[in-house]
Amino acid sequence: MSKRTFVSLAFCLAGIFALYGQEENQNNYGVDEANTKFSLQSGVLGGETNYTYLSLKDHEDVSGVPLGGIGVGNINFAPSGKFTRIGMNNIHTPIKRSEHSFFSLWTRKGNEKEAVRLVRDNHVLYGMKGVEHTQYKGLFPTAELSYADNNLKVTPVIRAYSGLVPHNVKDSSLPVVWFEVDLIAQEDMEAALAFSWEDFIGLFNDPKSLEGFDNGQLLSEGRANINNGENWPLREKAKTYVEPYQMGSLKGLIQYAADSLQPRKLTFQNYVNQVVIAVEEEKNVSYLPAYRSNSEAWEQFRNNGEFTSSLTKNVLTEQSQTSSASVLAVKTQLKAGQKKTIRFMLAWYAPELQIDAAALPIGSYWPCGADYNKYYHNYFNNMNSMVSYAVSNRARIARQTTEWQIPVLESSLPDWYKFKLINSGYVIYTNMVLTKGGDVMVNEGAMGGFAGTMDQRLSSHPFYQKFFTQLDRSEMDIFADAMDPEGYILHFIGHYYVGMGTVGGRVPTEKGWMLDNASGWIIQLVKDYEQTGDTEYLKAHLTGLKRAMKFLYSRMPQGSTIPVGPTTYDDFTHPPLYSYYAGVWLTTLKAYEAIGKAIGDESIVKQAQQQFATSQKEALEKLWNGRFFAYGCEPDGSKRLDNVLFTGQLAGQFLSRYCGWGDVYPMDIVKASMISQCKISLSKSPDYYANKVWDINLNRGIDNRGSQCWPFYLESYTALAGMQAGFYEDAMDIMKHIQLVHLRKGWTWTQNLWNPSDITYMTAPVTWFSTDVLAGAGVNIPRKELRLAPVVADDKVISIPLFYPNFWGVVTADPQKKSITFKITKKYGKERISFNKVISEPAGLSTSEKREIEIKEFVVEEGKTLDLSPYWDRIIDNRLEAPVLQEADKHDFRYVTIK
């Protein structure tokens, strides 16, 4: 056993014994934080609605498409041409923007010459003005920026992209960005393109000292405040150098620190010490190795489109000074009508950290969990090897990155939806931590660094689970391994500025439970099993599943069969018997029943079914008030809050139906609840951006200031639950306006849960539930079942892409021909997948009225098509409701009496 292993193991065991017997954590984390930290930003909701989503004109530039990779940092290329939210070093608190990072264009025709920065602004910097107009097509992780209407002699188009290849973690975790710039001239002329990049090396958060730090658990004794890296200062700027760089067909500059960077406290930040800016296969390349905020440095470029600086090693930035920047310029001759494409690369690299456990002081790193290194360290031990691989594989990675976008873009869905769906996946770059060992946790966002947040994960996980099942399972496995001895699933499994767990290790965030942490973990595990057919995965977690269920049963108070305790809605006090968790509990029982069926344990099946019947009866009797589910009540049913309407009341209904486990409430009750939400709160809120908690007597939301809406939950638990119930138009309207609230302010790629503001929050990928809901789709691979019941709202042909971990497909329905097909467009793995049954659960109909259609076995193979046209009338039978939101006052409430 090595000294490092021994020391770490000894410390972990000591910590475990020290915590044995501690009282249950009473920390109210989330309550005070959410209610005081995040104030509503300036401006009101409402405004422009008619955007050309795939060509945003002169759009706000707070954020842009994140470019980079999973777990390696990212930069935003914004709609103005600026670089914003530079998170190469720190994805949690990125640098807001850079004035020294930009593209510039020089042209000369005869004696007429012009140099402009390809940035939309009104400033003159470095002797060059910006442009007045831009058009931006941002589809994560790609962006296209064009510059029409600027009276430029050469029309440039910048196409930026990085790698995100489904189920290929290696190619999706490269810190490499490509910029392909097309130059098109109307006349013969000279042109030059320059790419300037600021020196960000060494800019990361670091505490001033380790005083007060130790290796203790964060959720006790005030350690969370000490470890809040949002409050740490930026480390003193490291001394950096710049010199020419050449690798194969690439030529450019490398910015670097002479030594590896040594923080006082190791975190999951990226300790980048090398950055390359280079151009591919160009001969007339010149350089400005280092400059500051002075126009003289650019004079040569403004005059001649090139620099004449010496190509030797230069000091880039002196230690502790403000950063300098480096410029790479390419000069070329253009023929009239000719298109010239210049391809730039931006890459960064952090060396692998070597932890000397004997030498490092206590508190400088977390010794009981995952490593701090990057996934690319498995393959590349230096910048050159990584760059060489990226160049050789660029075209393939780019092609495979757009493969998952193409089915969405070719669908019949509206542009606003295509834009929203594709871009909601950006969190995999901006929030996910991925280590060399393959361990994963996702930053919640603006919570001091807490990460691996199970309650939010219940809504945020679909994008990861569909496209990177390996990474999704990694986080789930760490949660399982860190399960508390009492049997509950933790709230967090790590912290961006401290450390995280690994299977066989220990997390720095022990204690602290919420009911839906356990339920969410169970639901996601069973759904994964049914969508992948991986029985071994389910069996590996069977003991933990039973322990988690035992814990939930233990939280039932006397006189109730529904567990009581804290939940994800931790920012506003709710009654013990809670409408949100009552439904989630019913879904948990449905999941447990599915487990019993999967392993052939009739005792589990019987127990789950009996408990479901009892708990459902109690939920309806105690919480249903005739129009909607009351906010909550005491366990005995007293003190029911009928005057408070809550947008999370259908959470369990949505989750259960989505997973294919049926309705947890009668459909007439679900519809009545949806109408009440639309009439009482949503229709009275600008952009339908309603408070979670609405007081009917006061006729307004009563959420704490700064935490008004929780839009991602509104999307899943109200909009998508409504779509399942037949409220198609209302559901799409809610989803569209949630996006508009962020889009208008330039926050498309930095959306916040609590209110519209500049915070990148983990739950944005919730939209990836919606393709399945629109198609009424799902799979149970072990049972060879395909669910399909697409929403057909008119007589137009619809095509909806579907994505599952092992295969993709497109469902196409033509109402005029009454034809419906399902084409397999992608297949992963060698496992045989087939269907012999199609189940239709049309929107607006109870799942008790589902139609089961026996079909000839259909084997899932790429390119094959399943023709279901003979069953049109059994599959397409939507019972869509008239929209409520736009004319809510003209709709009556629906009243349903419990029999």
TrEMBL record:
The Glycosyl-hydrolase family 116 catalytic region domain, residue ranges: 516-674
Instruction: Tell me where in this chain the Glycosyl-hydrolase family 116 N-terminal domain is found.
Output: 64-396
One biological-process term from Gene Ontology?
carbohydrate metabolic process
UniProt cross-references to InterPro entries, sorted A to Z: 6-hairpin_glycosidase_sf, 6hp_glycosidase-like_sf, GH116_catalytic, GH116_N, Non-lysos_glucosylceramidase
- What's one GO MF term for it? beta-glucosidase activity
- State what protein this is by name: Glycosyl-hydrolase family 116 catalytic region domain-containing protein
Organism from which the protein derives: Bacteroides cellulosilyticus CL02T12C19
